[in-house]
Amino acid sequence: MPAENFGRHFKCWREPLCISQSGKRYRGRKCCEKIDAQFQKTEAELYNLWPAIGLVNQARSNYCFSPLPARNGHYGCETHPS
């Protein structure tokens, strides 16, 4: 599950509640990981896993989980039909 699917329900995701060392306000995943215990718990839930390879995660974007069509692989990751 993309973090955006559950993260958008947290105030720290939508509003710039965090402040960087340079004084810039920010929001989103980086902010929620720092300040929201419920977000941290939700993100750590084993059912919210995402691909570890950045290129695959980037291609997946914020699309919901679904079966992949049978093919020889995606960016070097083998996929197998169910």
Kindly report how far apart the N and C termini lie: 19 Å
Spatial strand arrangement across the major sheet: 1-2
Outline, from the CA principal axes? elongated
The count of helical stretches stands at: 5
Segments where pLDDT lies below 50 for 5+ residues? none
Helix content: 25-40%
Spell out the helices and strands N to C: HHEEHHH
Characterization of the model:
By secondary structure, the chain is mainly alpha-helical. The chain has a domain at 3-48. The chain is 38% helix and 5% strand. It contains five helices and two strands, in the order ααββααα. The protein has helices spanning 3-7, 11-14, 29-35, 37-44, 54-60, and strands at 18-19, 25-26. The chain has a two-stranded antiparallel sheet with strand order 1-2. A hairpin with a 5-residue loop joins strand 1 and strand 2. The longest helix has 8 residues, at 37-44. The chain is elongated.
Task: Please give a quick description of this structure.
By secondary structure, this protein is mainly alpha-helical. The protein has a domain at 3-48.
Topology:
Elements: H1 3-7, H2 11-14, E1 18-19, E2 25-26, H3 29-35, H4 37-44, H5 54-60
Task: Give me some keywords for this one.
mainly alpha, 5 helices, elongated
